[in-house]
Design a protein that fits this description.
mainly alpha, three-stranded antiparallel β-sheet, 3 helices, 50% helix
């Protein structure tokens, strides 16, 4: 009986004291931090790749540049 009481009190304590993390949306995080994280492979031509000069090229880098321009036009905070 004592074992059941210990288990019950442990479960009760764990479930009542822990609060779930409040997740934020991507848009909320971008608005708060000014940073939009984007990832891709470095060798996924023509979508995204790094050229011989170390510059990002490809369709995805153009999309990211468009997104940066588009969001900077609508937000009070400028994104880098």
């Amino acid at each position: 009986m004592k074992k059941i009481a210990v288990i019950f009190s442990s479960v009760l304590l764990a479930t009542t004291t822990l609060t779930p993390a409040q997740a934020e949306t991507v848009v909320e995080r971008v608005a708060r931090t000014g940073v939009l994280n984007a990832g891709t492979r470095t060798d996924a031509a023509p979508f995204a790749y790094i050229d011989q000069d170390g510059v990002w090229k490809g369709i995805r880098s153009k999309c990211w540049a468009w997104l940066k321009i588009s969001w900077n036009g609508r937000r009070a905070r400028k994104f880098s």
